[in-house]
Design brief:
The chain is α+β, with helices and mostly antiparallel strands. It has two domains: about 100 residues, Immunoglobulin-like, CATH 2.60.40; about 110 residues. It contains six helices and nine strands.
């Protein structure tokens, strides 16, 4: 009886050790699976990942484990166009996820300012100038709308004065009064027309100045772009853990 109990004990102990060893091996394999490196061109870009979890940092951003599900990825760097995309991580696509940013250009700033004043300035990162041109343009076209309405009102007054003068068959004093009213209406139409045209020229001038300013005062990102093209940081893995290799070409 004692021998049977001893045999059962050693068999249970052996099964337990085998099970523990298998679990430890599986756990080690799970931990050794590579994670994800969020990298970009150029490097040093601020990236923000939002999904089941949220991550924020500069590239190369090393995540020690894989991701699952859809993530909104936003990448931003001064002098480059912001990238905003959605990527579906399956847990099997480890390795490196690369985000490529396009440099901002004068041509794109020109087109934006031509379409809407201030847009080119906002595009180049100069929010103060963009806000100024947006406000100045809205004010100029608001004044133009007021002057246009007053001009139309003056034309209506002229039409009424002309009709009254043509229908006046009374005394000389009544005809002279109608004629003077007609002359005043004509002068008012001319004054309102000049004011309307002046507002139109002012609005057009602000629009044109906005386009020229977006090109002439476009920031020089060339030195920054050249620096980051020669500068690189790459993640490295070894038995000691994850590291970064920094390289700069002169």
């Amino acid at each position: 009886m004692v021998r049977k109990a001893t045999l059962v004990f050693w068999m249970a102990l052996g099964c337990g050790l085998a099970f523990s060893s298998a679990m430890a091996q599986n756990d080690a394999k799970g931990r050794s699976r590579p994670g994800i490196v969020i990298n970009s061109v150029p490097q040093g870009t601020l990236v923000y990942l939002k999904g089941e979890f949220e991550f924020y940092g500069r590239t190369p951003l090393v995540l020690p484990y894989r991701l699952y599900g859809k993530y909104n990825i936003k990448a931003h760097k001064k002098g480059y166009e912001t990238v905003n995309t959605i990527y579906d991580f399956t847990g099997e696509n480890g390795g490196t996820f690369l985000v490529k940013l396009k440099p901002k250009t004068r041509g794109k700033a020109f087109v934006r300012s031509l379409l809407f004043p201030g847009w080119g300035q906002y595009y180049s990162g100069r929010r103060g100038a963009g806000t100024f041109f947006v406000g100045a343009t809205l004010a100029a076209f608001g004044m133009l709308a007021v002057q246009e309405r007053q001009y139309r009102s003056a034309i209506n007054e002229y039409d009424r004065a002309l009709a009254t003068f043509q229908q006046e068959n009374g005394s000389y004093a009544d005809q002279k009064r109608a004629f003077d009213a007609l002359q005043d209406a004509i002068a008012k139409v001319e004054n309102q027309r000049d004011a309307r045209n002046l507002s139109l020229y002012a609005a057009g001038g602000i629009w044109l100045l906005n386009v020229l300013e977006s090109v002439l005062f476009f920031p020089d990102f060339t030195s920054q772009v050249e620096f980051f093209q020669n500068f690189s940081v790459k993640p490295t893995t070894s038995d000691k853990g994850v590291g970064l290799a920094v390289k700069y070409q002169f």
